[in-house]
Amino acid sequence: MSIPHDRPRTTDRRVRVQGAPVDSYPALPPEAGRGSVRRITVVGEEILNRPCREVTRFGTAELSALIDDMFLTMYVADGAGLAANQVGVDLRLFVYDCPDDHGIRHVGHLINPVLDQPDADHRRLIDDVEGCLSVPGAAMAVPRTDRAVARGFDKDGNPLVIEGMGYFARCLQHETDHLLGHTYLDRLSKRDRRDALRQMDDRYEDVLARREVKAAGLGH
User: What pLDDT digit, counting tens, does each position of 124-140 carry?
Assistant: First the structure.
């Protein structure tokens, strides 16, 4: 998921890593410092249109390296979240570095996520602008619930429960959708979908150029 230009990243000192508050945290997550940039898949590619496989082996060097690469790739693309199938890997895993609506920065990864679905009496749908790194340059209003709880595991197999409000709730829903084989375009009307794809066509080259410049600045 990408953050619209009119929604700046929080500069607040409050940070939650893997759902737990920390006293301080660097602007560039440590994982990104260890990672390599991978190509981001683009809407229309088959891997984005089918459910991903569950992760069954935890604590491996390969899994850690994938997470590191995903963090750096997300950062280079100015993303707030990135799913594994967006870097061509068919696994139920996403990473995130996303602000919520209360100035708190949320950083972490989640494996084999499952969203708790709020009942109808407690569900509040909010329309807000949303972008996707696999639909580069496009942004559209998408209805999402204003609260989300995602359950899953960390890379060592430890259980996690991550709760999000506002924009971070949107991020959790967006990335879980990816792992089910959906992009946010699937939640749009046919007319809005066409509009989003036109935006992507118009801005695609500029977005990729910005990513190359940022990657080069990091020595990649």
Answer: 889 999 999 999 999 99
